[in-house]
Amino acid sequence: MADYSSWMGDVLQDHPEFGDIPVTQMALPGSHDSGTYTMDTRARTQSLTIEEQLKAGLRYFDFRATLSGDNYYIHHGLLESKTTSLAKRPIPKNLDSGTEIFAQIRRFLKANPKEVVILRFGDYWGYKKDQDYIDFVDLIRAYFTIPAPSQCALVRLAHGTKPYVNQQTLKTLLPVGMRVFVLFEVKNVPPNEKKIWDYVFHCPVSGVRDTASAMVLWDPYWEDAEKWLADDDAKNVKDHWFPWHEKNLKSWNRDGFFVLQSQMQVLHPTNNGAPGYFNKAERSARATSKLYKYPTGLLIANNDRNSSQYVEWLQSAAPMNIVTFDWAQYGWLVDKIVAYYRGWKLVPNYAQSQAADWKNKVSEAKNVTAAEAARIANGNPQIGFFFFVKEGPLDLIGKGRFDTGTAVFFSGSPQPGTAEGYADLYVKRT
Fold first, then answer.
1. Which end of the chain has fewer CB atoms < 10 Å from its terminal CB, N or C?
2. Quick check: 49 and 37 in contact, CB under 8 A?
3. CA geometry: angle at 14 spanning 12 and 15, to 5°?
4. Residue 277 lies in a domain
5. What is d(CA 204, CA 184) in angstroms, rounded to the nearest whole number?
6. Is the model's pTM score more than 0.85?
C-alpha cells in the first residue's frame, strides 16, 4: 500500500497555491464508519486501522461512539465493538501509547505536522448524563493538543459557523497549529453546554439538511433511501446514481463541508442470480473496471468507477469536498486526487494507443503510484502526458508488457487507446 502520510504537506511544498484552497472546497478522501475494522462482517466497512487509513491518505473519519462504563467504543447499527476503543476516561498519563483510535491519530499528527484531519461523531449510545459528553470532549481536547514542534490543536473559531469555516485554508490553519476539525451530530447532545460547543462544530444527523449557519456540514446520502440503492445496474448508474450526486453537489455550492458518500451496494445471491462471491463488499470495492459486469450484465459496485467519475467532476470545476468510501483503500481515490493537485488531468481507463508510433516516449518508472508519477513528470518539462498501470499486466502489442505500478512518460499529446480496468491516462493541465 502506498504511503500518503504527508500528501497535504508535500503538495503544499511543491505547489504553494494549494494552501489557498478553502478546506470546504478541497477534495479530501475519507472513510465511512471508519472504526469498524475489528467488527463482525455484518457491520465491518473498513479493513485498515485508523493509523493505516491515515497513512493511506484519508483525512476525514466518521465515528459512531458508544459508551460502556468508562470506555468510548465504536458501534455500527445494532452491533458494537468492545475491542475498538476511541478512548477511555479518565485522561491517561501517556497519550501517545495504546491502540485506542485517539492515540493512533495523535501519533500520526505528531509525525506529520502539515496534515489536517476532520473527525465526525454521532449516533451516541449509552450516554446517560451531560457529563458523559463533556468527558468525551475533554478526551478529544487532551489527545489533540500537541506542543511544538508538531504543534496541533482543535480548530476553534470566534464564530464557529459556515461563513467562518469557509474562510479556512492550510495557510490560515497551519501557522497557528489548528489541524483537527471536530464535528458533533447535534441529536441528543446538550444544546447549550459551553464545555462541549466551545470546542466542536455543529453537524446535523446524516441525511438531514439544516441550512442554519451553525450547521457546518451536509451529508445527503440517507435523504433518498429508496433511490440511492441504484449503482448495481448500468441504467440506474447513468440515469440516477451519478446525476443524483451531481445535483447534490450543485445544491451545496461550496457552503460548509459536504460529504459525498459512496457506499458499497453489493450484489446478493438472490439478485438475478449473481453469485455469492459478489456478496462480499470488500471484493466489490476492490474490483476494477475489468470486473464492472457479471455475465448477466449487472454492474458490480466498485470504488474505481466511482472515484474516476468524482475526479472528472473535480477537473471540470464542479464543487467537490469530502469523498467517503467503504473499504477506502481501494479505487485509487487518493492517487487520483493528489495527481490532480500536482497538475495532471485524469482520463480513466486509457493508455497510449498501441497503434501509435511511440517515438515521443520519454521514459518509464516502475513501482510507483500515479501521484509519484505526476511528481516525476513535473520535474521534466518535456513530458506532456503519461499512463499509469493500476492493475497489470497490460499487454500492448509491439510496445511491451507493463506491470502494475508502471508509469510510461511521453512528450506532446496522447493518442488514447482503451485500457479498461488496466490503466489510466494523465495529461498535463493547462
1. C
2. yes
3. 60
4. yes
5. 8
6. yes
The residue among 312, 341, 370 that closes a domain is 341
Q: Residue holding cell 482543535?
A: 154
Instruction: Assess whether 81 and 66 both reside in one domain.
Output: yes
Closest alpha carbon to 259 in 116, 82, 36, 62: 62
Place of cell 445494532: 78
What confidence score (pLDDT) does residue 399 get? Answer: 97
147 near 95, Cβ under 8 Å? Answer: no
Parallel/antiparallel/unpaired status of strands 201-203 and 178-185: parallel
Contact 57, 4 (CB under 8 A): yes
Q: Specify the CATH number for the domain of residue 317.
A: 3.20.20.190
pLDDT means over runs of 10, the chain (430 residues):
95 98 97 89 86 98 95 83 90 95 98 98 94 98 97 95 96 98 96 96 88 92 61 71 88 91 56 45 65 55 86 92 92 96 97 97 98 98 97 95 97 96 94
Residues 74 and 11 both lie in one domain: yes
The residue ranges of DSSP E strands in 221-294, in sequence order, are: 257-262
